[in-house]
Amino acid sequence: MESGERQLDAVPVAPGFKAGGAEENQGGEKRRLPKLKNPVKVWRNRRQQNHNHTAEDEHDGEEAQQEEQLEEVSRRLILREEQLFSQDSPTEEEEDQLHRDYEALRLQIWMAIHNTFSSSSSSSSSGHLAVLRSAVASIQQQEEQDRRWLDRQQGQVPVWRPQKCWSTHHNLLQSMVESRLTKSAEEEAGGADGLSTPLKREVCWMGWRVKEDLLAVARTVKDCYPPQVDILNLYAGLYHQRFSGRLTELAAAGLEPDDRSYLLFWINHCYPHEILKHEDLEGNIKTACLGSLLLLDHLDHLEDQYLTHKEDQVKLWLSAVLRKEEENWLSDRTPELIEQHHFSPLAVDVIQVIDGALIEFRCVIRDQSKAQRITAHLDSFLSSYKKCLEDFVKGNHGNVHSVIKAHLFCEQQLRGYITDQTGSVSEQQRRDCLDTLSALRDCGYRCFTCPIHNQLKVFLSQLWTPVWLDGSLPVVDSLLDSLSQHLDDLTDLEPACRQALLCVLHEHVVCQYVRMMMTTKMRMKNREQQVGGAQRMTEDSRKMADFFIERGCTESGWLAEVVDRLAEILRLQDPGSVQLELVSLSRRFHDLSDGHVSALLSLKTGLSATDMRSIRRSVKENRLPDVSTNQSPLFFSKVKMTRINQLVLKAQALSAR
């Protein structure tokens, strides 16, 4: 049996009429009507004749020509009705014949309505649309005739009035929609064959059917109806109601996690965005009247189940990634070399886990801020990652340096990913993650810089000695030669990571250089010594800057400015000039403290206690009021030592005199 036959079995006949039964007219008078042919059987017989026809195209043309006359047939029947019931006593034979003719017309009208979609893809679609348009016009004529009879006396109204064609039409559409959405996925599953579960195939097919049918209504069927019928929204409401009912049944049956996410994907993404917001539908369908496919309470529960499961998945996946990486470390394996640089897949795996979860999340959950339930596990993972790496570094493993090189690159990749995240990560989460990554990075840096620290102390301890002042002892040259040997071990570190490490090392060397300057116990006895010291500082600053710039560290060039400006303060002799230079330095680097100022002034000769108090007061008064607007890097806050605190106390004592 064809789908069209199943559908017409449910087509309602005219209100108040049953073929071959007793009927009550509007005046209360009963009479026996002649038994009419079953309209469904008539339709089936006609279909069978059509299948047996040897010239199908010719038959389609004849059928179209016949059906296009529905509007004219309806008009003639109404005219006969008016003429018949204008008589004082119409004959039963004439009335029965008119009744049979009306039933034949109604059957043709419902057949035309029923074929709305089944004929839309045929070669004679334009002919079927003409038939549909004629059928709709006939319905309008019959509705108008129903209204004409309302004001007439009850005894004069035909027994078949009112016919209520629009009511029957709407009931038929509802039956059609239900039938089209409940067909099995095996019959017309379209593109759903590749889906893994019966639920996915069913939901996909229903959604595909809703989309195709609504597009057909918007593109062609709508033009067959008068605007006041609003046929597109009528169909949209019926499809929404049926689709919603079936999805509610599926959601209530208990779902596997994979099916649950697919159901939410259709409810929250595909249906509202890809169907209702299709370019041919958006603005024409009253989506606010449709609402969600699931009741909000049910939808909230479904989403919470999804998020709980996804959180558990993300935690499990991240834990597996770290466990596998840690096993590689402890097995003394050396990370692989990619383009001559040590590489670990950990960062890529973590990003794929989080990003994959977020991509799916954005399509299945309405409230996007709930993504933080997923990204919250990134911070806890990073804390575990940092602790594992710190514990590994403490162990006596031969692959420490190669592992750290690989994971400095991982840190850089994760930092870039977290920094670029918008919406999915809260500001607090972002800060916490970046702080943890900074601690992880510093742990890695210490593996390479700690062995250098002791050498720095040895070399820099010779600064501010007479042999350094007269230029006979090249302290910085010897220091940089030693550094060069250590840095040769970093050639297999990823270039951007190597550059970042060199910048940190450059800053550390300059900090130690300045600290030695500020805490030297040697007081410049005369102008020549101060000028000579300033000249040595300028030369050392240039050598250090050139050394690191040649190795790709171009972002720390500002460090040379620090040393040069300190050298200028040492070179100047006039108290007013020293004051101006210190004020300028404090405005350029807002972390220059009173202790640092006192330490610098302690190197000067020829400055009285009054001069020092005046300079310190001027620096304090002329600092920028809002340091948050100062974009200069921090430097002096990293130059920490006990002697500076002692100098602050000494300066305060001098000021009190």
What does it look like?
By secondary structure, the chain is mainly alpha-helical. The chain folds into four domains: 3-168, no CATH class; 186-291, no CATH class; 299-443, Orthogonal Bundle (Tetracycline Repressor, domain 2); 461-656, Tetracycline Repressor, domain 2 (Orthogonal Bundle), CATH 1.10.357. The protein is built from 26 helices and four strands. Mean pLDDT is 83; it is low at 1-59 and 61-68.
CATH topology (fold) name of the largest domain: Tetracycline Repressor, domain 2
Largest sheet: 2 strands, antiparallel
Helix content: 55-70%
Mean of all residue-level pLDDT scores: 83
Structural class: mainly alpha
Beta-strand content estimate: under 5%
The ordered H/E elements are HEEHHHHHHHHHHHHEEHHHHHHHHHHHHH
Task: Report the C-alpha radius of gyration, rounded.
Answer: 44 Å
Count of distinct structural domains: 4
CATH architecture of the largest domain: Orthogonal Bundle
CATH level 4 superfamily of the largest domain: Exocyst complex component Sec6, C-terminal domain
Poorly predicted runs: 1-59, 61-68
Amino-to-carboxy terminus distance: 114 Å
* Oligomerization status of the protein chains: single chain
| Individual helix count | 26
Q: What is the spatial order of strands in the main beta sheet?
A: 1-2
Gross morphology: elongated
